[in-house]
Specification:
By secondary structure, the chain is of the alpha/beta class. The chain has helices at residues 3-8, 11-21, 34-44, 55-69, 81-86, 122-125, 150-161; strands at 48-52, 75-77, 93-95, 103-106, 110-112, 117-120, 136-142, 146-147, 170-172, 194-200. The strands form two sheets. A six-stranded parallel beta sheet has the order 1-10-7-4-2-3, sandwiched between helices. The chain has a four-stranded mixed beta sheet with strand order 8-5-6-9. Strand 2 (75-77), helix 5 and strand 3 (93-95) form a beta-alpha-beta unit.
Length: 203
């Protein structure tokens, strides 16, 4: 997808990005690629975006996040055994109790370019609400999970799970305390989170 080229490339891409960033909240989106649109809105929301083109780079980046935040001895709350197995060589301390953890480590369903949010459901959250979870989030996702709109993301969930559509579908969007969006019903009532997105190129 050439994501880094779009983000940090030459003058033409920079001009396009600046134009998109300066548009008002309710102005229609420019016709820009989904990955670039997501990155612009995600950063506006206050999220920390970390793009990697291999799993070894993901692992190295995760190590840097842990060191930077001094989380070496902190427990990571996880409800995904496959995620824990995938990162088993990182020496992370996992717990099944959010009250005993500093960081919520999770996957997601989709990345929504329309507003830079992260779509999750009961497969990631179980019965928990966002305000029940630790303040710090680390989300592991892939570029194939990028979609343009919330509607497209919901259709993909329906297609993926067919007759057993998961409950507790919501978006994580507020990544710093001074950002609010009362128009987004899927993120209504959610609390602000300090969020890192580890994005693996898989296309």
């Amino acid at each position: 997808m050439g994501l880094f080229d779009k983000l940090f490339g030459g003058g033409k891409k920079k001009a396009s990005k600046e134009t998109a960033e300066t548009r008002g909240l309710h102005m229609p989106d420019l016709n820009i690629p989904v990955d670039e649109k997501f990155t612009i809105h995600f950063k506006k929301n206050g999220g920390k975006f970390l793009y990697c083109d291999s799993f070894s780079e993901i692992a190295e980046t995760l190590d840097h996040i842990i060191i930077e935040n001094q989380w070496q001895d902190q427990a990571f709350f996880s409800m995904d055994d496959r995620l824990e197995a995938k990162f088993s060589k990182q020496g992370l301390i996992f717990t099944k109790s959010p009250k005993k953890s500093t960081v919520f480590f999770t996957t997601c369903e989709q990345l929504i370019a329309q507003n830079g949010s992260i779509l999750v459901c009961s497969n990631q959250l179980k019965e928990y609400k966002l305000h029940d979870l630790p303040e710090n989030f680390i989300v592991f996702a892939t570029t194939s999970q990028l979609v343009d709109s919330i509607g497209e993301g919901l259709k993909n969930i329906k297609r993926k799970y067919k007759n057993s559509i998961p409950a507790n579908i919501t978006t994580i969007k507020h990544f710093q305390s001074n950002i609010e969006d009362k128009d987004d019903f899927l993120s209504y009532g959610s609390s602000s989170k300090n969020l890192y997105l580890l994005l693996l190129e898989d296309l």
